[in-house]
Amino acid sequence: MNQDDLKRAAAHAALDYVPDDSLVGVGTGSTVNFFIEALGTRKHRIAGAVSSSEASTARLKAVGIPVFDLNGVNELPVYIDGADEITQGLAMIKGGGGALTREKIVAAVADKFVCIADEKKRVSLLGKFPLPLEVIPMARSYVAREVVRLSGQPVLREGFTTDNGNLILDIHNLQILDPIELETRLSAITGVVMCGLFARRPADILILATANGVEITRR
Ligand code: 5RP
Q: What lines the ligand 1 site, CB under 6 Å?
């Protein structure tokens, strides 16, 4: 099985967590793209989707799933999304695709966060994957200096603008021993729109596809 096969397996297993006649929160990324494909096959059983990016919105519409504005949604039973790294405690680094802000917002509204991932994403310590921060463009240099004070090495994601018109700083060389504390500190820097650590609100369920089958972890 290659990595795409594993992503597909995790994505298909996530269908079991999608209730009939409800809205589904949909994340962003290559693993989620397999999920959107699978969700398309049962589009008549769901009410529609709330999306975390323009890219996912386009894919959802392409398979015939209506996409709703989050502002009109009071109840969202489940949010399905991938991760760049995930720990045993289900804290994550997200934002490799740059959609972290909308992802965190949709996840905040959802009752349950189901993470779909292949085994390469499982880590014992977060931080090998550079941690994305979405920043307001005029605050870029200030935020970068503040990150250096916290011993991180910020690198501007060249040529990339988020769906919200902002920039991404990827922070290298972090050993994240206390993800909740770091998320709180980074989120508090003026000019940071969102931090790609998902530790204060981790996933509730991890569907991890491995060479030996799909493993489910519940928090
Ligand atoms: C996008 C994300 C994705 O969930 C994360 O990057 C994982 O992507 P993939 O499934 O392509 O490995 O946070 O902003």
A: 27-31, 81-84, 94-100, 103
Provide the whole-model pTM: 0.96
pLDDT digit string, tens, across residues 168-196: 999 999 889 999 999 999 999 999 999 99
Q: Which of 85, 103, 146, 183 is catalytic?
A: 103
Contact (Cβ atoms closer than 8 angstroms) between residue 203 and residue 115:
yes
Q: How far apart are CA 26 and CA 38, in angstroms?
A: 12
With b for 16 or more beta-carbon neighbours within 10 A and e for fewer, the 20-53 pattern comes to eeebbbbbbbebbbbbbebbeeeeeebebbbbbb
Q: Which atom of ligand 1 is nearest to the CA of 81?
A: 4
146 is annotated as an active-site residue: no
